[in-house]
Amino acid sequence: MTRFIDVPQLASLVRAVGAGRFMTELAAAIKADYLRWNDFDKTPRLAAHSARGVIELMPVADRSRYTFKYVNGHPSNTALGLPTVMAFGALADVDTGYPRLLSELTLMTALRTAATSAMVAQHLARPAARRMALIGNGAQSEFQAIAFHTLLGIEEVSLYDIDPAATAKLRRNLAHTVPALAVSCAASTAQAVRGADIVTTVTADKAYATILTPDMIEPGMHINAVGGDCPGKTELHADILRAARVVVEYEPQSRIEGEIQQMPADFPVVELWRVLEGSVAGRESAQQVTVFDSVGFALEDYSALCYLDQLAQAHGIGTMLALVPPAGDPKNLFGATLADPDRNPDQNPDPARHAAARASAEFADITADASPSW
Ligand SMILES: NC(=O)c1ccc[n+]([C@@H]2O[C@H](COP(=O)([O-])OP(=O)(O)OC[C@H]3O[C@@H](n4cnc5c(N)ncnc54)[C@H](O)[C@@H]3O)[C@@H](O)[C@H]2O)c1
Questions:
Q1: Is 229 designated active site?
Q2: Backbone phi, psi, residue 199, to 5°
Q3: How many angstroms is it from 136 CA to the middle of ligand 1?
Q4: What predicted TM-score, i.e. pTM, was given to this entire model?
């Protein structure tokens, strides 16, 4: 049987653990997987572009687990009452191909993106960073604020969005969830970023936008550029990149989708895993401007699905689905599914009993395999 986790089930799990702790543990899992970089079969994601957005498939595998995520990006969706980003995905055993877990990944994408942003900033921002500007106050924004408060000790955040209702929503949610975080609302991006140690841009617009321009950048800033993540969709003026140290997740994908799509093919970048393992410096001086050109890489969803798999078992969360045929004679798919049990009882011996036995045997297997480490 395959464990299925829907949005309410994941939400209850995150509430039980606490969003801050969830993202802290997830950030550690993502970092640990980046440190095993050469264990993974990697590929840029497969994108289907249309006038309003993009739908992407993001597969990755090591020797024991295969994962994929389906995710869209449609900035005009919010006008239709739909999220800009929606996602789901699966985790399978490489040895057998058996799908262990099928999960919602919309909430999980917000959690893993924020966890990744904050983990990267731990390596790139100045250690004394306490002030962040948050430009773009939509679905991802609360998660970014909570992750930076929890993992980096950010104490003040200044908000700006062209939609004042989005900013009001973010301020309200943060006041309830992280009262220790001092929140202010700015009248413009330029005002929000003034004096910030870290600037997170997480806007949605299918355009070569210039949310940040060179005149807004101060020495030593770390820019966490999250919203430019597909061809024709950027947030930073090219001169900011020219003057900064730019870190990317997976260079072949970031050249197509990241801020660096604006730059020549030989524009120098550093892959994140090298900074994490310490073979290449992250920030080189206190005055240097650093940019994390985030587009989201399949490895982060692999970490998220593996973490979720363990956590869901430990908390008994999820619904067991007959996503693949029940056990029995594996060569007799017809008998196990379509044969008429009244006419040919041997072909289909009590499928309900069979499915139940299979479910409990597999559940025991999965549970025995679990080694929760938190
Ligand atoms: N890098 C990653 O791993 C990753 C992961 C998830 C989402 N994203 C991207 O992050 C972005 C935000 O996602 P979301 O789910 O929060 O979308 P959302 O639509 O919920 O929020 C986007 C916000 O940006 C605001 N905005 C648009 N243009 C702006 C501008 N010029 N200045 C200030 N604010 C502006 C909108 O008003 C909106 O409130 C999207 O572009 C999405 O594709 C990236």
A1: yes
A2: -120, 120
A3: 6
A4: 0.93
